[in-house]
Design a protein that fits this description.
mainly alpha, about 80% helix, about 0% strand
Length: about 120
């Protein structure tokens, strides 16, 4: 068993392994980044009482900043821009749902509908 770990640690320190990481794993960062807007879009079907106003604001600000970054970096990263533009749209929709529910009578309307 120690032979296995010895060989594994030698391989992890090799230039071939570093090349593999640089060639294939750089792809997964942008893929994982799409999890934010996809989760926000999936949450559109859930009750607005579950929405966190603070987190929605933070994610909206985060996406605006990274949209700007994606356009300023050279070469321009349109994939990152598209991801954060999608997230910005989703967060703005969630923010509207949050504000409507908590401040513009959505909560009261829902309670009257349930009691009727």
């Amino acid at each position: 068993m120690s032979s296995f770990f010895s060989k594994a640690s030698q391989y992890a320190a090799s230039p071939e392994f570093r090349t593999y990481l640089m060639r294939y794993f750089h792809f997964w960062g942008p893929v994982a980044n799409w999890g934010l807007p996809l989760a926000a879009i999936a949450d559109m079907k859930k009750s607005p009482e579950l929405i966190s106003g603070n987190m929605t604001f933070a994610l909206s600000l985060y996406s605006i900043l990274f949209m700007r970054f994606a356009l300023r970096v050279q070469p321009v990263n349109y994939l990152l821009f598209a991801c954060h533009a999608t997230n910005e749209a989703a967060q703005l929709c969630q923010g509207y749902r949050y504000i409507n529910y908590h401040y513009f009578g959505g909560k009261v309307a829902e309670e009257t509908t349930k009691s009727a």
